[in-house]
Write a sequence for this structure.
């Protein structure tokens, strides 16, 4: 039987917050809105009345990974505002408290505890793996219902070494092991590749997790990993690793890295004559513009969402923010918020006091046993609080990602 965690040790320090587009210290006031009457909503005071339910939404709204954080926060906020526009939860409006943690774990913890002090009943966040691990650890003491849209490391919800489930934490995205295994299966079973190489950034949970599971699964299927190459954070020259891969003559290269580095790797691979198809994970989302159509030819990556899957969401996003949704993290943010509201609805239906221990446990129990009709698919949660759903396999047509198939 899986154990349920109540506390893991992590760190807390100074953080940042986004308030109406202005960044201040986390000790200052956060962005707080209780939307009503329209998706856009209206500003509200920092103190919720008895007729509001406070929900925290956090992510890196500035810094190196802000493209992900802004997408998640926008997607989540869009859904919460839509709920308010439809009358809220049993007549109560949702008050959205937004924090910017700049992609930093210590700041993320401080932002989380600030929102706890302000009275949140649940959290949509965090976004990338390392800050999410820190917040998940801190959230255990409060038994705070927490749904990350996009953090993929297995340890966010489950500690394999101790066989312990993080009882209050869920995710809307798939895990690193899932992605690595899925892409190995697709490479071997669907594309027919039997020889593959891997290039990944070492010392990063996301990159290493995908790489390790791809290698293990590909070999278990009967395939051969001809080369494994790694690089360090901050590296910009990958030609040594790529030259080594070229010499081993793979049929494909698995490149489980984030889009900016993938773009550099593909360009340098082309320059040395390594022109086999590359494969990737959801970190490729946003790659268009960083690589040419020729460099992306016959390449595939897995994602939670494919453009066009939910025209209603895409139209609402553009109406709310004045732009197309930027990447697949926005739909995940939307579904993470939808998951939180599913739990909040159950607690409100039970007549419990928002923020009480009983209320938070009711939210958690509802999510754990629920079925979420999301825009990234209809999903339930497994025993490790990971969503059970299909994966979108995307390829590139004229340099732009398009859905190939669900797999």
């Amino acid at each position: 039987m899986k154990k349920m965690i109540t506390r893991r040790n992590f760190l807390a320090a100074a953080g940042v917050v986004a308030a109406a587009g202005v960044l201040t210290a986390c000790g200052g006031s956060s962005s707080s809105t209780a939307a009503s009457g329209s998706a856009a909503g209206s500003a509200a005071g920092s103190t919720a009345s008895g007729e509001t339910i406070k929900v925290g939404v956090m992510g890196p709204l500035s810094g190196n990974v802000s493209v992900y954080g802004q997408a998640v926060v926008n997607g989540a906020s869009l859904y919460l505002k839509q709920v308010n526009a439809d009358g809220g939860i049993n007549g109560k409006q949702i008050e959205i408290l937004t924090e910017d943690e700049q992609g930093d774990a210590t700041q993320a913890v401080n932002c989380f505890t600030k929102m706890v002090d302000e009275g949140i009943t649940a959290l949509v966040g965090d976004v990338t793996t390392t800050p999410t691990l820190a917040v998940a650890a801190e959230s255990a003491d409060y038994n705070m219902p927490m749904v990350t849209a996009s953090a993929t490391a297995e340890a966010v919800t489950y500690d394999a070494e101790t066989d312990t489930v993080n009882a209050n934490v869920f995710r809307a995205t798939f895990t690193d092991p899932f992605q690595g295994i899925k892409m190995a299966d697709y490479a071997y079973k669907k594309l027919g590749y039997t020889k593959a190489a891997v290039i990944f950034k070492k010392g990063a949970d996301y990159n290493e997790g995908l790489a390790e599971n791809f290698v293990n699964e590909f070999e278990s299927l009967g395939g051969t990993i001809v080369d494994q190459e790694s690089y360090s954070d901050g590296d910009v020259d990958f030609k040594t690793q790529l030259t080594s891969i070229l010499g081993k003559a793979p049929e494909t290269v698995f490149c489980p890295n984030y889009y900016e580095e993938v773009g550099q790797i593909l360009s340098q691979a082309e320059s040395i004559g390594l022109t086999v198809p590359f494969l990737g994970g959801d970190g490729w989302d946003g790659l268009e513009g960083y690589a040419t159509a020729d460099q992306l030819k016959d390449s595939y990556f897995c994602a939670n969402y494919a453009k066009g899957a939910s025209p209603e969401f895409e139209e609402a996003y553009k109406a709310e923010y004045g732009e197309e949704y930027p990447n697949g993290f926005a739909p995940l943010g939307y579904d993470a918020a939808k998951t939180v509201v599913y739990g909040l609805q159950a607690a409100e239906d039970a007549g419990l006091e928002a923020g009480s221990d009983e209320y938070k446990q009711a939210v958690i129990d509802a999510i754990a046993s629920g079925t979420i009709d999301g825009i990234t698919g209809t999903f339930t949660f497994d025993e490790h609080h990971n969503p059970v759903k299909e994966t979108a396999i995307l390829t590139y047509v004229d340099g732009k990602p398009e859905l190939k198939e669900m797999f």
